[in-house]
Amino acid sequence: MEYANHLNEYAPAWSEAQVDQEVARIREAAKRNHNTDVYKMCYSAIDLTTLSCNDSVTSVTEFARKAAEFYQKYPHIPNVASICIYPAFVETVGLAVDGTPMRITSVGGGFPAAQTFLEVKALEVAMAVENGADEIDIVLNVGRMLTGEYDEAANEVEVIRSEMDGDIVLKVIIESGALKTPDLIRKASLLSMFAGADFVKTSTGKIDVAATPEAAVVMCQAIRDYYAKTGRKVGFKAAGGVRTAEDGALYYTIVEEILGKEWLTTDLFGMRLFEPTETEDPFSASCRGYCPPSVATVAFSETSCGRILPPTACRHLRGIPDGQNRPTPRNNIPAADAAGIIHANGGCTLAARGRDMCRTRSRGRKGRTTYINAGNRPILHVRAGKDTGCGSPDFVTDFRNTTGSSPRGGCCLL
Known about the structure:
8-stranded parallel β-sheet; 4-stranded antiparallel β-sheet
């Protein structure tokens, strides 16, 4: 089918200067959305993802199990939108989350480069759907977009769309960081929608430039204009560049400002966080820096993003004098034990996973600050509101990156 001619029915993309000006405006507007309700909604819009060469049936089962247990442990908090995995693990996740409303997202179509035969792409998607995937993430052929082969790029999406029933959600990743210009980002978004995408998504998270506010603005404008012409609502997902609660609130505000509040549901808005490192638990990394405060205040004392920690993880800090004014590295924690909590004079702080950490405290008991250091450099502190025990929901009142000025709420920042 010919799609490129339909691009002429739409206004051209804004210039980079216009996009930058709009992003600056929305950044100011986003300050109103730095609150618990917005953070909760953003958390519920996350596709919890593990897409690593280290994935195995064992690791993916454990990953999915943690997400499934969240329903029972925190019934008052909306869970993530879906679990996203490679197609070979769709059935594995299905068994782990059986009996819960958790949705399963599979990447497919030669993810992440989309550089394989169209027949292979279609078959891979068909097999993922057959095994139980509720949603499919494919990548638009970026090479064809860069060489102006717009019809060919869109036709690939159309063929893959035909391999699934209408109730399967198709998300098309345009890899905005590779397209770079507002013109190509807008064209890729429109072509994806012409060909049947239910969502347009920024990035795979596998190249240097992932989601950016600038790309999000251009994509949301394309969605708005497509809806005005067709009456069909298409969702937006930011992927790969969302690191903090504030980042999430910014993308939330972009959608709110350009598409309206009616788009702020998990059916039309979503996010995927940045990729974990090789040493990180992908579950913790997916949540890192992005659990809402209502989760964070519990998670610092009991869990690491919903994962109950073993009793052996709770250690006592000794030999650190009260009234110490500056962080001094002490009590180095081996990486093997670093996925735990530290118990100090009735209070708990979250330890990092997969790296050696040390902790110091200062300012006595009430109102003390516990510093969490990487090597000799303090990277954040947790301030206790009062001298309370492990498990207290009001233990953490301040969570701040000491290298910057703004608090970064979340249960897994490290």
